[in-house]
Known about the structure:
- By secondary structure, the protein is mostly helical.
- Helix content is 88%, strand content 0%.
Amino acid sequence: MLPFFVFYKGLVKLRTKGEDVDLITSQICNLIMPQLRDLF
């Protein structure tokens, strides 16, 4: 799980840089979040 949080922190940093990155972030989160729910 730790690599995910490091990866997520990197995404949050990228989000502050631009709208297009924000769009990519939301798409990645949409892919990852259901898998996280399955883990917990």
